[in-house]
Amino acid sequence: MNRSLKPFDRIINIMTYLAGILLVFIMLSVCLEVILRSFFNRPQIWVTEVTECLLLYITFLGTAWLLREEGHVKVDIILDRLKPKTVTFLGIISSVIGLFVSLILAIYGLSVTWSYFQRGIYTPTAMEIPVFAILLIIPVGSSMLFIQFMRRTGKFIAGFIIEMRHSRY
Question: How far apart are the C-alpha atoms of 73 and 79, rounded to whole Å?
Fold first, then answer.
């Protein structure tokens, strides 16, 4: 592994562990909510709202790690029938598309988050959470995903060059 990329890998590992911790917190708080509501007639007003926000956080905390691990859904039945050079070329195409999508999401997400921060907008719910705090994970997670797509694109391009050299002989 490239030495300069180790801090990035540590960051996305930490983000993934945090996503796991948030998932466990959601599970425990929902179980607690069911018990308190069913047996003690004491529903907690915050559980649903916090769970909704944390599900967004879990999604964006884990995407770069999932991409690094090549864990996204693939159509293996088709990929297994293609030549390695073709699979590598399709990897380049999908990575470049992912680069653009994650960059747009990061830029637009930052713009919207900053706008909500400047305007001081809160959720119209009982907890009145600042909306920027909910949306902040979108540009952060998308930026990490963009960097991981850059790494993946480079890996596929290097693989494609190697495949091209081997196919000549």
Answer: 12
* Best CA proximity match to 138, nearest among 38, 44, 63, 82: 63
Which residues, 6+ apart, have CB-to-CB distance to 111 below 8 Å? none
pLDDT tens, the chain, 169 aa long: 566 679 999 999 999 999 999 999 999 999 999 999 999 999 898 999 999 999 999 999 999 999 999 888 877 788 888 888 888 888 899 999 999 999 999 999 999 999 999 999 999 988 899 999 999 999 999 999 999 999 999 998 988 787 777 766 5
Q: Can you name the residues that pair with 130 across neighbouring β-strands?
A: 122
101 pairs with which residues across the strands?
none
